[in-house]
Amino acid sequence: MNTQQARSALGKYGEDLAARRLTEAGMTVLERNWRGGRSGEIDIVARDGSTLVVCEVKTRRGGAYQHPMAAVTPDKASRLRDLAQRWIQTHGGAPPGGVRIDLVGVVVPDRGAPVVEHARGVA
């Protein structure tokens, strides 16, 4: 498995864990890996009551790089807001509870269980 395949597999694993965490928190996952044209993709689109949740998932190996929760820069937040608007336009308008951007950070250690953190309203 090359580096790109390994990163892709790690990302998919992290997204699976994130979707499970959101579901356990009472949210409904509407879509995964939604592509908004060339401007990027939303990892998970979910509904939390009457609120639409655009969720960015960041997965890291334990000990490597920065903490995943540090991954949403102002540029990234802006891009996620643009993608959220595009999703709303193609899916019939804004929900009554508005839109929230969440981040799920997944750290996969060399040994032991992964750590999944869910931050609401990060941007």
TrEMBL record:
One of its GO terms (molecular function) is nucleic acid binding. Belongs to the UPF0102 family. InterPro entries: Restrct_endonuc-II-like (IPR011335), tRNA_endonuc-like_dom_sf (IPR011856), UPF0102_YraN-like (IPR003509). This is UPF0102 protein GCM10010121_070080. Gene3D superfamilies: 3.40.1350.10.
